[in-house]
Amino acid sequence: MIEAQSVAIKYDGRTIIDNITLQVQEGEIVSIIGPNGSGKSTLLKSMSRLIPCERGCVRIGGQEIGTLSNKRVAQLLCMLCQSNQTPGDMTVEELVSYGRLPHKKWYERLDASDKEVVDWAIDRTGLATYRERLVGSLSGGEAQRAWIAMALAQRPKILMLDEPTTYLDIAHQLEVLELVRSINRELGITVVMVLHDLNQASAYSDRICVLRDGQVMMTGSPKDVLTPELIRDVYGVEAEITHHAVDDSMRIYINKKTEAASTRTELAPLH
Length: 271
Known about the structure:
The structure is a single chain. The chain is of the alpha/beta class. The protein has one domain (2-266): P-loop containing nucleotide triphosphate hydrolases (Rossmann fold). 32% of the residues lie in helices and 30% in strands. The chain contains 9 helices and 13 strands. The strands form 3 sheets. A 6-stranded mixed β-sheet has the order 6-7-8-3-9-10, with helices on both faces. The chain has a 4-stranded antiparallel β-sheet with strand order 2-1-4-5, covered by helices on one side. A 3-stranded antiparallel β-sheet has the order 11-12-13, covered by helices on one side. The radius of gyration is 19 Å and the shape is globular. The chain starts with a strand and ends in a 5-residue tail after the last strand. Keywords: ATP-binding, Cell membrane, Ion transport, Iron, Iron transport, Membrane, Nucleotide-binding, Transport. It is found in: Cell membrane.
């Protein structure tokens, strides 16, 4: 579906990611994890063509993304960054309507079929009662859902999310991730996202790609990737992992070592 092949990116002469290859299959949810500064967001931006590759290339459906028009790229994928800004007077409905622009010529206005898609995206994300609200007046979780609604109206094959739970409380984090998983399962949209929380990555991902110092350490299923050994090697902390036979889930605990003792704390509660 989408592939980064031997991608390298430099900023100011410094290598940020080096020789990274990542293949994402159609219909997958793939989460990119790793310590701060490991190149997670940079890799995601390179795969969405926001950042040019120093070496290597990115392909969508076998085509190099650099050979595609901006309009075609926008029809195939949508990228939502950590912080998304809107004009102060923009309503939810107006924001969601922008998702239809990649499917229109510059002089065309939205028609009845476009408005049906906008209505569907608003309803699908539970924002029907918010459609006339200003985006700036929404809570963090509501605003994130509005941006995801805009992405759904765009009808992309691939949705890329850079830390979609940043600045949200735990309840809204889970709300957003449940929404992402539901649109992946029900609509078949491929999802590539950057996450910090290891428990959330394990619960909401088909596969996980671990970065450290701009390189891929490991890619695979959550159970194969998230081991105490890898967490120790990548994050420099000791971890305890429990597996639940009933729902085949896993839960990760970090042991923060001090001179006196280790304190066992759960990364994040999951339901």
